[in-house]
Structure formats: structure tokens, C-alpha cells
Amino acid sequence: MPSTKPFQLFVACIFICSSLSAVAQNQADVWLTRADRSVLFAKQAAGLSFSTAKNNQPTIVVNEKETFQSIDGFGYALTGGSAQHIVKMSAPARAALLKELFSTDGNNIGVSYIRLSIGTSDLNEKVFSYNDLPEGETDLTQAKFDLGPDKTDVIPVMKEILAINPKLKIMGSPWSPPLWMKTTYDARGGMLKPEYYEVYAKYLVRYVQEMQKQGIPIDAITVQNEPLHPGNNPSLLMVAPDQALFIKKFLGPAFAKNKLKTKIIIYDHNADRPDYPITILDDPEAKKYIDGSAFHLYGGKIDALSDVHNVHPDKNIYFSEQMVVEQPNSESINIVNPVRRLIIGATRNWSKNVLEWNLAADPENKPYTDRGGCSMCQGAITIDKDNYSRNLAYYAIAHASKFVRPGSLRIATNDLAELPNVAFKTPEGKHVLIVANSGKNNTEFNISLNGKTLVATLDKGSVATYIW
């Protein structure tokens, strides 16, 4: 008679595995940041357990049956200045930094989305484009197009990042066309000359193609960074009718002709002008080429993103930039502010991503351009040779990026005034809930899902991510 031991072991394994799974489903991990800096994005030793007990505490009800947008990722702008600091680090120091930022292992934060400047931004050491010519000269065929300075910093750093996370999403944004295409031969302000609309479309096509040759796939481009802010260095004024015309007659057809899969995203400016993207999307000829609209929050209210979504629900929403600053060596960290306004606020208003400005700077916030560059733009990381420290923007993004992986779906929760929150379901079936205590008191509250409840406590000014 054959032995029954293998079968018994098989049954025992099923029982044990099922029990472990049940325990895992009834336990929530907690990653916490406290306002007093006593805890900075750290996993808590004791998890929380779900039960069916009742109490009278305020309750965040998670409803996984009501779903919203899918998530593309969370991250930062990798400016030329950021890359300049990173590439100068020794190979071991650079590898350690990039692993911490872009890997999800251990305590690494798993950044999954990066924004690059197409040419220079105001956080570069100097202004340049990929086709700089003396005043009076032109290059209508883009024969002299060259990625230039990016070859020495942005591209090498991006290659190292993509080796860690090959699925990283990348958005490109131009601050200015080459000067010879503008109404004024100046990096600041001016407009794109109508006779160069077709040439500029070729320029942007070349950018996508040349970056692809470098092994850097550009998932999306915005047409113009802050098109209503011509005072930056560099910058360009591009009003909504001009952007619509450029897309429908030149950029859209050029992308289609060259079979580019790169998405075209409009606006890329503050939430105070939702009329800008709406008027462009109201033009069906332009709309057919457009994936969605991108926003910043230096002006306006975050719910303006929903205003655009409600008028054009078939087009996506992105959050492409916000500067997050804290005082160096501060005894407290205002983690609630960026998490409430951006991580929670943008995603609750349909955004597929959240990007902060910017990844890295030195202790003096350098480099930045003269005549309008940002001297107060602090990096998520401050780099001093091979040493680096983590700032507010690092911790704010970490609370989402590590756990809300690309492909996650936002799911419904009720909105409590002093406990702003947002929830997601990951592709692996895990639930992620991010909560900020914006009230004046430490608060005990419930998290409820499918009839089960766990009881959590969050100090005032603190943020926690719950995963189960």
C-alpha cells in the first residue's frame, strides 16, 4: 500500500499557506513620517490587525468596487542641474543613490516617473537648445540637431536609472525652442514664429527619435512648459489658440507621419486656467492627437483638474510639477502639506501621476540660469560631492512611489476634513491607503474595507501609508 505521507504533507502545506495568506490579509503594514522628524518614512515594527469590532471613531471607508484612473507613477524632474551633480559622484556613491531612489527593494522608494527638459530648463548651468545657431541663420531640415550637453549628464544618468527600472515612465518638456525660431532672439519670452511651426515639430520629433537611439524611450511630451509664464529663463509665450494650431496642423501630423507612440500632452501650467486645456480639447481636429492635460499648482485650486476631466472625460490628467521646499536643518517637517495638496489632492482629481520639482541640487540650490532661474528650488536630494541628504520632497513622494506601482487603480474612499486620504489597489491586488493628519490633535480613526475594520492612530502633522 503506498504511503499517505506525501498527501498529508500536501494537505498540511495547503492549510499552512492558506492560514498565512489569511493572516496577511488581516494585517496592514504601516510606513510613517512624523512631523517632529522622530520617524522619517520608516516601516513600523508593529502592523495593524483588522477585526469586526465596532467603535465611534471617525472612519475612512475603502470601497474597491468604485474605481477611477489608473496610475502611471510618482517621481521628480531630472533637470540638467540634477544630472550634473549625480554624474559627478563616484561610481559607488552614484549607484547607491540611484538604487535608493529607483529600486523598490528594502527601504528604497521606487520612483517610477521622471520628467526631463527638452533642451535646457531654468535649473541648468547655462541655456542651450539642440540646434543653436548664430542670429540670422536657420536650419529648416534640422540637419544640425544634436543632443549636445545632455550627452554628458542627463543621458548617462538616465541609462543608469533605466538599468535599475527599465519600465520607468519619462515625460519630456521644452522650456524654449531654439532662439532663431522665436520672435525675439532671446531665451526668455517671445513667441514661436508661425513660419517655424513645421520646423519646430520636426525638432520635437528628432528629440524623441534621438533619445530612443540612446535607449531612452520618451513616453510623453508636453508641448510647452508654463506657456503663460514668459518671464522665466528660458521660456516661451504660447497662448491656447496657438498651441491648438501647432498641434493639429504640425506636431500631431508629424508624430503620426513618423509613427511615434509618444503621447502629446497640453497646457503644463497652473490650475488657475482650466479654460486653456478645455478650449484646445474643444477643437476636435486638435483633440484627436492629444492624450491629456498637465498641471502645476503655483496658482489655482487642485480641483480644477476635475473640471477639465468632467468636460473631457476621455482625456487623461497629469500633474507635472510642483516645487516643495523646507528650511535646511529644521526641527520639524511639514510633510502634511505636499502629501495633502499633491499626492492626495492631484490623484483624487484624476491625475495619473505626481511629479515634484526637482530631483537634486547642491546646498546652495545650484545650478540655475541667470535672469530668471530659480534660486530657491530645493532638490528632493541635496548633493555635496559624494554625500547626500533627503529633503521634504523625497519623503512626500516616497509615501506613494514605493507602494502605488504603475498600473494601480485609484479606488473610492470618503473624504474626512482633518484626515485627507486616497486609496489604491495595486496590480498584485494589494490595497494602499495614504492618510495625512491635517488637524490640530493626534487622532484615532478606523480604516474599513468589506466589513472589517482596523484602528489606527496618527499624530498631528504626520503622514502614514497603510498596505494590506
UniProtKB/TrEMBL annotation:
Keyword Translocase on entry: no
GO biological process terms held by the UniProt record: glucosylceramide catabolic process
Keyword Disulfide bond: no
Position of the signal peptide: 1-24
GO cellular component terms listed in the entry, alphabetical order: membrane
UniProt entry keywords in alphabetical sequence: Glycosidase, Hydrolase, Signal
Example of a GO MF term: glucosylceramidase activity
Domain Glycosyl hydrolase family 30 TIM-barrel: 71-404
Gene3D superfamilies in the record: Glycosidases (3.20.20.80), Golgi alpha-mannosidase II (2.60.40.1180)
Domain Glycosyl hydrolase family 30 beta sandwich: 407-466
Highest taxon above the source species: Bacteria
Family: Belongs to the glycosyl hydrolase 30 family.
Protein name according to UniProt: Glucosylceramidase
Organism: Pedobacter roseus
